[in-house]
Structure formats: structure tokens, C-alpha cells
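To: structure subgroup
Subject: Chain for Friday's discussion

All,

I'm putting the inputs and outputs inline so they're searchable in the archive.
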Amino acid sequence: MISAAIFDAFGTIVRIRQRTNPYGALFREGRRQGVVLTPNCTHFAMTANLTFDQMADHLSIELSPSKRAELNDALGKELASIEPYPDALEAIARFQESGVIIGICSNLAQPFGPMIRKAFPHVQCHAFSYELGVMKPTPEIYLAVCREMGVEAGHRHAGKGRVVMIGDSRKCDRDGPGGVGIMGYHLDRSGLGQISDLMQFTHRVIGHDCTGEW
């Protein structure tokens, strides 16, 4: 019996059609100015609940009005190009019709969270790294989304409600969840893996074929 299913966001249920990499451009501008940015600045961007402009100010990256407008325009274009995968909409609807609670768990910067919520308005349970201050594969983020869904991870037997997760990262969406008792599946949209689309995953899980990867 499956009680809840957790989905990763980017590369799993949504894609970015126009990548502009505004955060990378911001960090390059900072380094050009001589600002000392540690290698984990990307981690900071995904665990600090800051807008793009607040991020620049916090890191002491000075932006002229024209540069600020340029980078914000790049961010806006990337955000506007986010769209759900068609199989994600179908898969989530199928799960919900079967009474399975849905959650979304993702590493992402603050501006991207509202776009995920907008793309999937019928999904009410989320665990986003920028809101929680931790990233996958840290156990706390998986446990947080389980709390949001009102389910308990760790049940592996048919008599208990199982929690499953799928995403495009073996480390974050298969192995990480497995560490807290969530059955993790790896999605490989290239077609080279065991699961190449979300409807395949849906049929496997709803069909109680829960012999997937840990």
C-alpha cells in the first residue's frame, strides 16, 4: 500500500526551456569585483530565503542599475520558461485519483519556489531547500516533507503505508530518501535507466511493484 509519493522538481516534474543562469552571472560579477565567494555559494543561494536582489546585497556584490536590470531580466526569462512535463501532470493526477498524498521536495533558490507552486496548484505539500535551510540529501528535508504530508517514513511492509520518491538524481532522490526509509527511484529521461518517464513510475508504484532501487 502506497500512502504518499514525493517528486523532485527540476528534471523530474518541470523543465526550464530557456536557461540564462542568472545566479552564475551574479557570482561571476562578484568575483570580477574582487568579492571573495567560497565554492559553496551555490549551496548558500539554495538555503538562504533571499530574493535575487537580496542575495546580491548580502554577498556585497555591487550592481549598477543597468546591471541589476540585466540580471533580473535574465532571471525573469528563466522563470517564465519553466513548464511542467506532460507526464508529470498526468502522473500526479493519477496518484491523487488513487488517494495517494503528493509532495514535492527540491533544492532550489527562493525565486523558483512560487513557480513550482503555480505549476502544480493542487499539490499542497512542499519541502524546498531555501525555506528549510538544508539541501538534499540531508535527511531533514525528506522528513520535513513527510511531516507536511502527515505520513511517516520507514514502513517497508505491505501492511503499512509506504512512502516513495522519484527524481533525476541517484544521490538525492534515490539514495538519500532510502536512508530515512523512503523507497527512492531514479528517473532517467534519456531512456537508459530502469524508469524513463513518470507514467512508467506511476504504473509500477500503483501496481504495487515496489521492488525498486534503494
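Points worth raising on Friday:
The chain has two domains: 2-15+83-208, 22-81.
The first strand starts at residue 2 and ends at 7.

D.
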